[in-house]
């Protein structure tokens, strides 16, 4: 059995961060794919690993390490010299962590709203009110989020708020690229900041929200650049994009490309 076991889901943005970092650092791992719509993340055996009932969870020799941003830092802590993804001076590390906090406060939670409205909602619409409420109640981390969505989806106001946050995320990335001189968000080296925000940008592009950076071509260039890295293809295997699972999103995307 491998030292590292990753409990995750192909399309989960938080899982994609961790898959990318593991591949970038050349760490072999055993992957367990959970079906989030069948409730694998809420089964007692998984809750014993992660009481928050979300993916990812990384097991290191049987010891659970939880939360994608924590896991990214953990991988650096245990293998700082293998393909480093963190700067070395305390000031730069503090700067990197502040950037990651911004990502986790602003764009990362915001991407869930359009993802649910545009892709995941049908999974809930056929449920009875009682079954839906029971599902909400069973989620340690996402109870209120799901209740706010309800069976009819997030309101226009919620969508507008999420789009505003995503826009602010794009503007901040653009500023970081300008300040650091690129090509990565902290300058010459790809870092945990790039990995932390990557799934949000890939998801925006996937669900046809790439127009948000029409006025910021440097974001499109950054996306092309990270797509060209070797760990990207290993992370985004078939089934990791929503357009690969939800045909209606692929149709919208194809229509826009004409
Ligand atoms: N802060 C946590 C959030 C994890 C999270 O929200 N995971 C989502 C997938 S990206 C999940 O497992 N959702 C399952 C659910 O809502 O039931 C992390 O970064 O690991």
Strand content: 5-15%
Number of separate strands: 4
Shape: globular
Spatial strand arrangement across the major sheet: 2-1-3-4
CATH third-level topology of the largest domain? Glutathione S-transferase Yfyf (Class Pi), Chain A, domain 2
Helix content: 55-70%
Q: Report the mean per-residue pLDDT as an integer.
A: 97
CATH architecture of the largest domain: Up-down Bundle
Distance between the termini: 48 Å
- Rg (CA only): 18 Å
How many individual helices?
A: 13
Q: Which terms summarize this structure?
A:
258 residues; alpha+beta; Glutaredoxin; Glutathione S-transferase Yfyf (Class Pi), Chain A, domain 2; 2 domains; four-stranded mixed beta sheet; 13 helices; 56% helix; globular; binds glutathione
Notes on the protein architecture:
By secondary structure, this protein is α+β, with helices and mostly antiparallel strands. The chain has 2 domains: 4-78, Glutaredoxin, CATH 3.40.30; 90-257, Glutathione S-transferase Yfyf (Class Pi), Chain A, domain 2 (Up-down Bundle). The protein has 13 helices and 4 strands. A 4-stranded mixed β-sheet has the order 2-1-3-4, covered by helices on one side. The radius of gyration is 18 Å and the shape is globular. It starts with a strand and ends with a helix. The mean pLDDT is 97. It binds glutathione. Glutathione binds next to α1 and α3.
Secondary structure topology:
Elements: E1 4-8, H1 13-24, E2 29-33, H2 44-47, E3 57-60, E4 63-66, H3 68-78, H4 90-105, H5 107-120, H6 122-125, H7 129-137, H8 143-149, H9 156-180, H10 192-206, H11 217-227, H12 230-235, H13 247-257
Parallel strand pairs: 1-2
Antiparallel strand pairs: 1-3, 3-4
Helix pairs in contact: 1-3, 1-10, 4-10, 5-9, 5-10, 7-8
């Amino acid at each position: 059995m491998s030292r590292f076991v990753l409990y995750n889901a192909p399309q989960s943005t938080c899982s994609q961060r961790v898959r990318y970092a593991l591949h970038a650092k050349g760490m072999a791992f055993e992957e367990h794919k959970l079906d989030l719509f069948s409730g694998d993340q809420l089964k007692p055996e998984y809750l014993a690993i992660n009481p928050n009932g979300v993916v990812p969870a990384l097991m290191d020799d049987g010891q659970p390490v939880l939360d994608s941003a924590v896991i990214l830092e953990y991988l650096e802590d245990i293998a700082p010299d293998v393909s480093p993804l963190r700067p070395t001076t305390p000031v730069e590390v503090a700067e990197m962590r502040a950037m990651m906090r911004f990502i986790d406060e602003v764009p990362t939670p915001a991407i869930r709203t359009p993802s649910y409205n545009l892709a995941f909602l049908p999974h809930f619409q056929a449920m009875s009110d009682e079954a839906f409420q029971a599902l909400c109640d069973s989620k340690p981390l996402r109870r209120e989020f799901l209740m706010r969505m309800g069976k009819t989806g997030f309101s226009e106001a919620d969508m507008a708020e999420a789009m505003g946050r995503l826009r602010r995320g794009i503007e901040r990335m653009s500023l970081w690229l300008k300040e650091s001189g690129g090509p990565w968000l902290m300058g010459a080296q790809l870092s945990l900041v790039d990995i932390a925000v990557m799934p949000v940008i890939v998801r925006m592009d996937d669900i046809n929200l790439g127009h948000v950076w029409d006025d910021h071509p440097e974001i499109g260039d950054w996306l092309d650049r990270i797509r060209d890295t070797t760990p990207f293809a290993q992370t985004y295997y078939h089934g990791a994009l929503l357009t690969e699972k939800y045909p209606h999103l692929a149709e919208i995307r194809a229509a826009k490309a004409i």
